[in-house]
Amino acid sequence: LTGPRGQHIMYVHGTGTGSDGTTDTVLLNADVDIHDPLIRISTAGLGPLAGQTGGFTDRPDRAALTGAVYWLVDNKRMGTIGCAKVYLDGLTGPDADSEQRYTGSSGLPVTLDMQSQTLKTGVFYFANIKPGAHTMKVSLDDGKTFIGEETKFYIPFARTEAKSDTKTVLAQLAFYVKGPSNPTPSTCAQ
Fold first, then answer.
1. Measured between alpha carbons, how far is 53 from 168 in angstroms, rounded to an integer?
2. Which residues are CB-contacts of 45 (< 8 A; sequence separation ≥ 6)?
């Protein structure tokens, strides 16, 4: 499937021990103009473990979304952006309905009182995002100004639409910020 700005959406069908032989559904929003050969795919057991560390319960009518904020130079990933906050669908704060989280030093989502912005790894997580069209913006100053361009993305289906009881739905999204230098604040200690 081809999305906005040359993005391609790939569906990855896993293999495993489920009743239909599958364990994972992964959706990747890949921008073909970005020259990065690495595609990151999470493991099937991430959902329940993430819920424990992040303090949420997976909702069957929703899907999970994970991703990172990347710094680009000449359309090449040069690093990630730390101390960034992600804003979904024009909100001015964290999206409580979608169970917005950031990942802690363990690499798993944690509650917002433990981690309220990206670490230097740039990773964010939404546990229960609604299927459909969404937008995302990123800020380094609590939403006063935004870096990069607003990104549009689409979540095509929810957990209940997965075909196996051991299958999960995880969308992955990269948010790109172009510039001559990494905008991570010098005060970002994480």
1. 18
2. none
- Enumerate the H helices of the chain as residue ranges: 46-54
Residue 160: phi and psi, rounded to 5, are -65, -20
Q: Which residues pair with 123 in a beta bridge?
A: 68
Per the CB < 8 A criterion, the answer to whether 151 and 95 are in contact is: no
Give the separation between CA 107 and CA 122, rounded to whole angstroms: 11
Provide the token pair at 110: 């944690």
Give the residue from 47, 42, 79 showing the smallest Cα distance to 176: 79
Q: Are the CB atoms for 54 and 110 separated by under 8 Å?
A: yes
Confidence of residue 41 (pLDDT cuts 50, 70, 90): very low
Nearest to 94 by CA among 61, 119, 118: 118
Is residue 46 scored above 70 in pLDDT? no
Strand partners of residue 143: none
Closest CA to 168 of 47, 67, 53, 29: 47
